[in-house]
Design goal:
Radius of gyration: 23 Å
Largest sheet: 5 strands, mixed
Number of domains: 3
Helix content: 25-40%
Strand content: 15-25%
Structural class: alpha+beta
Shape: globular
CATH class of the largest domain: Alpha Beta
Length: 385
């Protein structure tokens, strides 16, 4: 971590000196360990879902007492910071701190602050770390615990740490207010969708009857690049955001293509997550492209419908340890098809709300710039004297 010359009462220390660093445990592989579970089992899925969160308190999967007894898993305390260290999410810079104790997947590094450092101060420092800077081989998404331990960070006195945290928390609260506004907009759209379409009697059709479906296929590995050469390439859920996937790779030998104004669905664990596709792109085997046939269904109606029936789609996924949905299961999925004019009316509402969200996004970006500037000054010793 690059910093300017630090104040006299600050130190530069290795992360391993102020925190206990290890990793989680291999996930239990049998369904019996999750049946009626009550203990949090944090995975990269939970971390990726929130991206950055200093108050994560629940996980999607829960372990039961049998798992705790037979699998000999380590229990991690609250204020443990989770740092992805292997797999597709390693370089996405997700960072969370858990506020409820739990068990952790082996794909996550666990960073437990010692008494020398304020947990939130350390959390904010780790937001400044680009995981790619910690490995010499960026083509292989993996970090070594030994390298994390050697990471150099600034360490002011505890009183200074506390003062910095108080300032950053106020800035963070402002960010969250902007984010909350968009959440309200999303909830409004879900409410409108529910009012217009749920618990109503509409004709049902198979997905393949109203959409063009393309199952992904990964291009040759030697065709990948990160310098923009060729066709944008999405492998799976790892590139998804709130609405559109983020391009991180390209391929010079595209196989299966998705078109703009279609929907990308994750068909391999996790199953059922969707994003809108706004560019022509190549899709790997972790994705399917679903393009509405306009005379039957509207893009926004279908997008919200698929979000609403995600649990149903996920249930179709086969495999106890690695869920996946087949092309036949997806094609024969039955969905309600309301009158097209009703779907289009909903789409107009969505487009209006999206314009309002875009204005909020611009405001949020300005606040993010301010927050990042504050953090940079904080860890250079310029914020609190």
């Amino acid at each position: 971590m690059k910093t300017k010359k630090l104040p006299k009462d600050w130190q530069e220390v290795e992360l391993g000196g102020v925190a206990n660093i290890s990793s989680g445990n291999s996930a239990p592989q049998e369904d019996k360990y999750f049946k009626n579970g009550k203990h949090n089992f944090y995975r990269t899925y939970d971390v990726g879902l929130v991206h950055i969160d200093s108050r994560l308190s629940k996980s999607r999967d829960k372990l039961n007492d049998l798992a705790i007894k037979e699998c000999r898993l380590e229990l991690f305390p609250k204020d443990t910071i989770l740092f992805p260290k292997s797999g597709a999410s390693t370089f996405l810079n997700h960072r969370v701190m858990i506020k409820q104790e739990g068990y952790i997947s082996s794909h996550l590094a666990t960073i437990i602050p010692k008494d020398l450092i304020n947990p939130l101060f350390l959390f904010y420092i780790l937001l400044q770390i680009d995981a790619k800077s910690l490995t010499s081989d960026q083509s292989y998404p993996s970090l070594k615990i030994s390298e994390l331990k050697k990471l150099k960070i600034p360490l002011p006195p505890l009183a200074t740490q506390k003062a910095i945290v108080q300032i950053l928390e106020k800035a963070e609260a402002l960010k969250q207010k902007r984010e909350q506004t968009n959440k309200f907009a999303d909830e409004y759209l879900k409410s409108v969708f529910s009012e217009m379409f749920l618990n109503k009697e509409f004709e049902e059709k198979k997905l393949e009857e109203v959409c063009d479906i393309t199952m992904g296929q990964s291009p040759p590995g030697n065709s990948y690049n990160e310098n923009g050469e060729g066709t944008p390439f999405f492998q799976g859920k790892a590139e998804f955001t709130e609405k559109y996937p983020v391009v991180k790779k390209w391929t010079t030998k595209p196989s299966k293509l998705a078109e703009p104004n279609s929907i990308l669905m994750s068909v391999r664990a996790p199953v059922g997550d969707v994003n809108l596709c706004n560019i022509k792109c190549c899709i790997g085997r972790g994705l399917a492209s679903i393009k509405p046939i306009e005379k039957f269904t509207n893009l926004y109606y279908l997008y919200f419908l698929l979000q609403n029936i995600k649990d149903k789609i996920e249930y179709l996924g086969s495999g106890s340890t690695f869920k996946a949905i087949t092309s036949k299961q997806l094609a024969t999925l039955k969905i309600p098809i309301p009158p097209l004019v009703l779907q289009q009316k909903f789409a107009q509402i969505v487009e209006h709300v999206e314009k309002l969200k875009e204005k909020q996004k611009q405001s949020k970006e300005h606040i993010n710039e301010m927050f990042n500037s504050l953090m940079q000054k904080a860890f250079n010793g310029e914020l609190v004297k």
